[in-house]
Design goal:
Elements: H1 17-22, H2 28-35, H3 50-59, H4 64-69, H5 87-90, E1 91-93, E2 96-100, E3 103-106, H6 122-126, H7 136-145, E4 151-154, H8 164-175, E5 182-187, H9 189-192, H10 199-209, E6 214-220, H11 229-238, E7 244-250, H12 259-271, E8 275-280, H13 295-308, E9 316-320, E10 327-331
Parallel strand pairs: 3-4, 4-5, 5-6, 6-7, 7-8, 8-9
Antiparallel strand pairs: 1-2, 2-3, 9-10
Helix pairs in contact: 8-10, 12-13
Bound molecules: iron/sulfur cluster.
Length: 333
């Protein structure tokens, strides 16, 4: 018997997040056996950690969780763009995407804690795009030659699926570049694998929060039904660390396209120490067009949300411009 493997208890996160990661549902057969229904073969892969899969199963077909994470026929339909925000155009190679003057994206991994069916990078990740092939030394060199860049945004994939020593190596390298004042993680992991926020990672974030002017953690959450007691516990541990805790959400048809669900989500975030930052209008993505809303529909929802909410609960409602020219406010908050 391998003493390093905890017994699987359905719906319970293991003390070792990497075990939950290894034992995730990874194929159509895994999904069909677990959920006891048939799913269509689509071009996209499958990945759902088992504790989170139970939440989806309990929420049932047609729920916001089911729609976000389980394969659907519409993913095989024509329409939409492979690279809707033109990552490739702004790629400088080796994991660097430079779209805005004072900040770059760096993608240290293509791996995610779950396969989100609405993801705007789902085609690039599927095709193993060169955009995401990273090299830390090249990134450091790029920053040294571009001192106008003061913020590095770690995205992917999801940077928090990396091992702690890898994250430390990245933070240490960026902390040595004098012009880099801010680090930002964009992550879905605290929602999907809240046990990933282990003591070693928390200690690491705390130490590096003091080495940058601002260290931000932008938690990606779209609906309150995604939340677990383990996520709330992780937030409690994050709050005292001196980190800028923010959220981003995507407005998705059939998931959160009503003002009341959004109001509940944003007020719950603020109540737990997280400032809602962005509400993204969905991008016209190949394989995810069934999540699209029109701008008019989105604006109506946001206007109503604004009428019904205190200003501090409102994230910026933003839309990506065509050809990757960057975000603009879809409607002023
Ligand atoms: S975790 Fe983020 S990058 Fe990965 S599939 Fe989900 S939305 Fe896309």
């Amino acid at each position: 018997m391998n003493n390093n493997v905890s017994p699987i208890r359905e719906g319970v996160y293991s003390p070792d997040w990497q075990q939950d990661f290894r034992l995730a549902l990874k194929s159509l057969t895994d999904l069909e056996e677990y959920f006891e229904v048939g799913f269509p073969q689509t071009p996209y892969s499958q990945f759902i950690p088992r504790p989170f899969a139970l939440k989806i199963k309990n929420a049932g077909e047609g729920s916001p969780l089911w729609r976000q994470f389980l394969p659907a026929d519409e993913e095989s339909e024509d329409g939409g763009l492979v690279d809707p925000i033109a990552d490739e155009h702004y790629s400088k190679g080796k994991g660097i995407i430079h779209r805005y003057k004072n900040r770059i994206l760096y993608t240290p991994t293509e791996v995610c804690p779950i396969q989100c069916r609405y993801c705007f990078r789902k085609n690039e990740l599927l095709q193993n795009s060169d955009v995401f092939k990273n090299n830390l030394e090249v990134a450091i060199n790029y920053l040294e030659n571009n001192p106008q860049v003061e913020e590095v945004i770690l995205t992917g994939g999801d940077p928090l699926v990396l091992a702690n020593h890898k994250i430390e190596q990245i933070l240490e390298a960026f902390s040595k570049v004098p012009s880099v004042k801010m680090i930002r993680f964009h992550t879905r992991t605290p929602i999907i694998l809240p046990n990933r926020l282990d003591d070693e990672l928390l200690d690491l974030l705390k130490r590096y929060a003091h080495k940058f002017t601002i260290l931000s953690l932008v938690i990606h959450t779209n609906h309150l039904s995604e939340w677990t007691p383990e996520f709330l516990y992780a937030l409690q541990k994050l709050r005292p660390l001196g980190i800028n805790l923010l959220s981003q959400s995507v407005l998705l048809k059939g998931v959160n396209d009503n003002w009341l669900d959004l109001k509940v989500l944003f007020s719950s975030l603020v109540a737990n120490g997280v400032n809602p930052y962005y509400l993204h209008h969905p991008d016209p993505t190949k394989g995810a067009m069934h999540f699209m809303l029109s701008r008019e529909e989105g604006e109506l929802i946001y206007k109503k949300l604004k009428e019904e909410s205190s200003g501090f609960l409102l994230p910026h409602y933003v839309v990506e411009q065509p050809n990757g020219a960057g975000k603009i406010f879809a409607l002023n908050s």
